[in-house]
Design brief:
Bound molecules: nicotinamide-adenine-dinucleotide
Number of strands: 7
Order of helices and strands: EHEHHEHEHHEHEHHHEH
Largest sheet: 7 strands, parallel
Number of helices: 11
Structural class: alpha/beta
Helix content: 40-55%
Distance between the termini: 48 Å
Strand content: 15-25%
Strand order of the largest sheet: 3-2-1-4-5-6-7
């Protein structure tokens, strides 16, 4: 069902790789809600992913960019304003990658070149995006910029590795830039802290199957899936949330405020003896 929440709005969606991507679902939903959009991803992701299919579905141009490269980002904003016919109303940053995770380097034995890349791709790219947009004055007043985060920014979660530090930095950038962008241009900047979700990036998290089961049991409303995240994201792009900024907004079925649930306790009880040595 469409509410026309984004009718007449222009958006840029970064990070749709395949139909499991959170950005994919958000692009579909934004289009369904009346927005016109462009899509951006790296050359490799465009070659190996399925973004062409999404572009067709949403009548969107794909603009190649490495989000760590400010010239590429400038091109994305300039080209988007050209093809969409004016300044941008919303931007989605749905980008994350850790070579330490990919190469199975644990947190107490990280490769520091990889660590730098994790921070650059997964967090500093958000600052770059905001700075490029700010300098170009590419975002309309009351526009909305959203990045995707994860609760590992606040709590230690087994196996999340250096992505936890990237998410902490990402959320801090939303606050620091959100202050300036709000003060100077009335643009809001927020992060959505999403439940674990089975996507290409999500599948890289160590023990993701057990993690999904745990968070499902711990969340009174259950895990939020990518489609539900899209529903939430479009409200943040819409005019209905104009005074929400500099926030990290949990979209996790209640997980972030739980300590122990009946459902998790019952599994824990059953396995207590066999798990004592871990
Ligand atoms: N899946 C989960 O469990 C989960 C939970 C909370 C938050 N998130 C976050 O959601 C966001 C989207 O991830 P996803 O789960 O949809 O996985 P995904 O793998 O579908 O998306 C990650 C995207 O990042 C892009 N990317 C990587 N390096 C890039 C670069 N240098 N420049 C531009 N783009 C680049 C990839 O091409 C890909 O499209 C990430 O920030 C992720 O950390 C995911």
């Amino acid at each position: 069902m469409s509410y026309n929440l984004l009718k007449g709005k222009r958006g840029i969606v970064f990070g749709a790789l395949d139909d499991k991507s959170i950005a994919w679902k958000i692009a579909e939903k934004a289009y369904e809600e009346g927005a016109i959009i462009t899509l951006s991803n790296t050359a490799t992701a465009i070659r190996f992913g399925q973004i062409d299919e999404l572009a067709k579905k949403c009548n969107a141009e794909i603009i190649t960019a490495d989000a760590t490269n400010t010239d590429d980002l400038q091109h994305v904003f300039e080209r988007s304003m050209e093809v969409l016919g004016g300044k941008i109303d919303f931007v989605l940053h749905s980008i994350g990658m850790s070579l330490n995770v990919r190469k199975k380097r644990v947190y107490n034995d990280v490769n520091y070149n990889y660590f730098d890349k994790t921070l650059d791709i997964s967090a500093i790219s958000f600052h770059k995006m905001l700075q490029v947009a700010f300098k170009l004055d590419a975002i309309n007043e009351w526009g909305s910029v959203v990045a995707l985060s994860y609760i590992a920014a606040q709590r230690s979660l087994y196996g999340y590795n250096d992505m936890a530090d990237a998410k902490a930095l990402l959320e801090s950038i939303a606050r620091s830039f959100g202050y300036i962008y709000g003060r100077e241009k009335n643009v809001r900047v927020n992060t959505i802290s999403q439940s674990p979700t089975l996507t290409t990036a999500g599948s890289g998290v160590k023990g993701v199957g057990s993690l999904l089961d745990f968070t499902e049991r711990m969340s009174p409303l259950g895990n939020a899936d990518a489609k539900e995240c899209a529903d939430y994201a479009v409200t943040l792009f819409s005019d209905l949330t104009r005074k929400v900024t500099m926030q990290n907004l949990f979209h996790d079925g209640g997980f972030s405020n739980m300590g122990m649930s009946y459902s998790a306790m019952s599994v824990y009880d059953k396995n207590l003896d066999s798990s004592l040595d871990l």
